[in-house]
Amino acid sequence: MRNLLAITKALSDESRVRALMALQDGELCLCQIIDLMGLAPSTISKHMTLLLQAGLVERRKEGRWHFYRLARNGVPAEAKGALKWVVHSLRDEAVVQSDSEKLSRIREKDLEALCACYRS
Amino acid sequence: MRNLLAITKALSDESRVRALMALQDGELCLCQIIDLMGLAPSTISKHMTLLLQAGLVERRKEGRWHFYRLARNGVPAEAKGALKWVVHSLRDEAVVQSDSEKLSRIREKDLEALCACYRS
DNA sequence: TCGTTGCTTCGTCTACTAACGAAGTATTGC
DNA sequence: GCAATACTTCGTTAGTAGACGAAGCAACGA
Prior knowledge:
The structure is a homodimer. Chain A is mainly α. Chain A has a single domain (2-118), classed as Orthogonal Bundle (Arc Repressor Mutant, subunit A). Chain A is 57% helix and 12% strand. The first copy, chain A, has seven helices and three strands. Chain A has helices at residues 2-10, 14-22, 30-37, 41-53, 77-89, 94-106, 111-114; strands spanning 28-29, 57-62, 65-70. The first copy, chain A, is globular. Chain A starts with a helix and ends in a 6-residue tail after the last helix. Chain A binds chain B through residues 1, 3-5, 8-9, 11-14, 17, 77-78, 81-82, 85-86, 88-90, 93, 95-96, and chain B through 1, 3-5, 8-9, 11-14, 17, 77-78, 81-82, 85-86, 88-90, 93, 95-96. Chain B binds a DNA duplex through helix 4.
């Protein structure tokens, strides 16, 4: 029950759902997600931590960068089912498609340039 | 997105998830759910309304009684998938089994007797 | 039709949550 | 080492959500 509630609570915020869907096309650095969502770094960091704790997302550290991706290895059945359901339900959602297009442009940018958000 | 968030928000509270799982063995009158959960009638009513608006549950009025059951007819794919996921994830959950046992005893009681909760 | 009953809605209070900026932490480069 | 960088955590504030009792509403019974 606790796992399920962690998942449903993680999925009950639009920003987190959008962030989750953004990871469909591959892993993203936190600064890329910040650029996509247009929220403060601390806010996005907290959102991603919640998705992480719910088991929906995995984190990989490479130097100073933190990359997030959809959970794949050793994922409990609850989280796996939830991911499947969300991705299937939102496949044709307008916001998700719009984010996907924005992301293809964000991926072209330099990571260090995106990290300017921490200093402005 | 709005539908999905209505569903995840409805599922992000333990009382509502328990109420939903309680409907697995068949429809229940509101007073039976109140007896099971031990919360105020107004609280349970609000919870069930949220589940209703999320499309997870259906309501049937029979005289003064309101019966709730899991959504079956014309259910959008999102809600259907969510129901499947939750039921599957919580099939072996202790609280759910305990509630199921309590319910078999509650079903034996008289509905009018259970409605005493509105007058105490 | 008028009171009773079963439930819903309203008003209120408390507790949690999303947002931010500031301060803290871990890693790199010099 | 030590500054800079890429986050994370902390502290605060404003909005939301869950709990309750009181009041309102719809259906039945006499």
